Amino acid sequence: MKRYIILFLGLATVFSSCEKDNYTAPKSELSGQIVYKGEPIGVEYNQVRLQLWQPGFGKLAPIDAPVDQDGSYSAVLSNGNYKMVFPKGRGPFKTLEKDAAAKDTLFVKLEGSQQLDVEVMPYYMIRTPQFSGAENKVSVTLKLEKIITDASAKDIERVSLYINKTQFVSRATNVGVTDLARADIKDLNTISVSTTVPALVPAQKYVFATVGVKIKDVEDMIFSPVKKVDL
What we know:
InterPro entries: DUF3823_C, DUF3823_N
Protein name: DUF3823 domain-containing protein
Organism: Dyadobacter luticola
Distance between the termini: 81 Å
CATH architecture of the largest domain: Sandwich
Order of helices and strands: HEEEEEEEEEEEEEEEEEE
Radius of gyration: 24 Å
Structural class: mainly beta
């Protein structure tokens, strides 16, 4: 009896090894940017993500594709059919519905690496941000364009200027921030914000800066491109 058990276990191990050997690791890259009319949407690093679902493989679980500061995303996947969505309520924008059946789901057929930009409708766009630096100070001027103007439009809560020693600069990662409340903004076409640069250790003659806009009742902020500012 022991001989049969040992033989069975040996065969099970062989088949298990064969299954592992036959497994093909994902090698196709799906990449692109989150855009509005082809223009990238800046977001906070590691806060916004896309989810990819591949039906037909047992228990469903999404594959997350984090969106970078410049609106880019990427994921290494196996070839096949995927459904791409944003988690509900994420992003400083509205997703676009293709039709009543698909709603805002994108259907992707992946056969090798592919680039796919995802079009969205932001509540606002940051226009012409101009950063300048002086001793212990960084300033920015900008305009805000209100994109959504129908019944689903939203007001802004504040405009914030963030600075950091590295290019990773956001609400969570910064050495200085100044908030400008909506009540202090008289004209969306002429906004200016300044912040003080603290003592940097080790010392450096530059910082990285970005300006973000917090929209009322929307968790994620929209950001300008990060710029290096000489002091």
